Amino acid sequence: SNTFIAAVYEHAVILPDTADEPVSPDDALALMNSNMDVLEGAIKEAAQQGAHIIVTPEDGIYGWRFTRETIYPYLEDIPDPAVNWIPCTDPTRFAPAPVQERLSCMARNNSIYVVANIGDKKPCNSSDPSCPEDGRYQYNTDVVFDPEGKLVARYHKYNLFIPETQFNYPKEPEAITFETPFGKFGVFTCFDILFHEPAVVLVSELQVDTVLFPTAWMNVLPFLTAVEFHSAWAMGMGVNFLAANTHHTSVSMTGSGIYAPDGARAYYYNMKTEDGRLLVAELDSHPRLSATFPPAVNWSSYALSVERFSPNDNDFGGLVFHDWFTFTELAKPEGNRTVCQKDLCCHLSYKMAEKREDEVYVLGAFDGLHVVEGQYYLQICTLLKCKSTDLNTCGQPVETAQTKFEMFSLSGTFGTNYVFPEVLYSGVQLAPGEFKVLSDGRLISKTRPTKPVVTVTLFGRWYEKDHLKQDPQLPAFS
Ligand SMILES: NC(=O)CCCC[C@@H]1SC[C@@H]2NC(=O)N[C@@H]21
């Protein structure tokens, strides 16, 4: 088919009690069944609305706050999908697997692909020198059941986030894909999105059409809020992206969406209540063949072709999520500005509807290794609103703004081809259809932005540089 209906469910996970001791297998299953009761309602509703596939969140069935020992009763042995297993119709073929059986039946009874995140356990012994002392590997695992209830994909998360000490890293990254009548799918989990393997491999080498993305994502403004970054990754990589987040506002977890390469089809961000939400939207099965598929981009073409727009007399520094940026203030209501850090020069042309006295915007550049909660090399050009009119607050998280822009055009001399374009309006709102990337690398407003701007960002990832030693992040202007 040319199109299909996708669903994602943001789930307010029912968490286990914080206990230091492992619970019984029955208690673990009871907690997981409470969560699956809610997921089953969402799956039924999605199927009734015609969805062909539904994605549910990372940690959506057992929650978090586990040690290696306390998660054990929640784990099941998940076989390689090559065994051709329908747990719903053949539940006793392997060791008891009540969670896989129930997920399989939900898929089968509703004739829909179901994507879920559960825990896998694999026994090992001393013949394996890497075998953990407790005699088992434990993996954060995505599973996919087809509309017959057959297990068609199993993915072990490769880039564990720092607190996930309950799980092991798989020895090698797994690039997991499967074919459907509506395109080729790939799957990875949460923190994986910031790294080359397996995320970029799935798109650039294996040419998937749609990525399935269970996540438990804590939002970090100004660049790493879920809806902002996940929609930007879909656009930068040219794929559909189905992101299902957990919903838990006390740790800033919210933000799910159905994203196409040219913008969001549906998204949900809600820090006000603890409600989950089902999203359903239509997508192209093969976005690369669609008339709206964005053109190939040379990310540095425009920026390398122009001279510096402005002198660097008044540049200053500031921290953005632990990274030392070089900033220049946008003091006039319109203009052309350049700011550089190391090899990255960022150019901005902009026009504000009016220059407000109570809001300050800057153009910023960062070219360096990010080292907090993981190590990854970034090149970032950004137009952002400062928290207050004090320039020392530039880079601190900001959610709202009042300044409307007539236009913006942002570009940079990137050394990487992997650049993710973000536009965030006041109130953590996306701007689908209101901006685009030209083939020469400029991120431009298509029409006059309809809402006040919080950030416009080109978020570049330079994967080859991830293993460099950290540069001392000193102000380049001092
Ligand atoms: N479950 C996960 O793997 C969560 C990782 C995503 C966290 C994103 S990426 C780095 C930022 N730090 C955060 O606390 N949230 C952001």
UniProtKB/TrEMBL annotation:
The active site is at residues 58, 157, 190. This is Pantetheinase-like. The lineage of its organism: Eukaryota, Metazoa, Chordata, Craniata, Vertebrata. It holds the Pfam family Vanin_C. Keywords: Glycoprotein, Hydrolase, Signal. SUPFAM superfamilies: Carbon-nitrogen hydrolase (SSF56317). InterPro entries: Biotinidase-like_euk, Biotinidase/VNN, C-N_Hydrolase, C-N_Hydrolase_sf, Vanin_C. The gene is LOC115609598. Residues 9-285 form the CN hydrolase domain. Belongs to the carbon-nitrogen hydrolase superfamily. BTD/VNN family. One of its GO terms (biological process) is pantothenate metabolic process. It comes from the Eukaryota. It comes from Strigops habroptila (Kakapo). GO terms for molecular function: pantetheine hydrolase activity.
